Amino acid sequence: MDSRIAILGIFVYNQNSVEKLNNLLHSYGKYIVGRMGLPYHEKRVSVISIIMDAENDVIAALAGKIGTLPDIYVKTIYSKALS
What we know:
The protein is α+β, with helices and mostly antiparallel strands. It has one domain: 2-Layer Sandwich (Alpha-Beta Plaits), CATH 3.30.70.1150. Helix content is about 25%, strand content about 40%. It contains 2 helices and 4 strands; from the N terminus they run βαββαβ. A 4-stranded antiparallel beta sheet has the order 2-3-1-4, with helices on one face. A hairpin with a 4-residue loop joins strand 2 and strand 3. The relative contact order is 0.35. The mean pLDDT is about 95.
């Protein structure tokens, strides 16, 4: 199966969940091309973007696991499939 590039947009509303999130990201580290995180103190949220290069099922699996964490929300944007 071909790999795709995707961006995971993550909103963290509860800092108590950050350790679990970081453990998940670490376990998928070989697929992560880049990561940027910014705290937005005025809105009491942290925003993280993850760029991945992986097969669809790997990207979806990580997004699904992140989505189960309390007060953390994730959306995924996939690149076009290139042949």
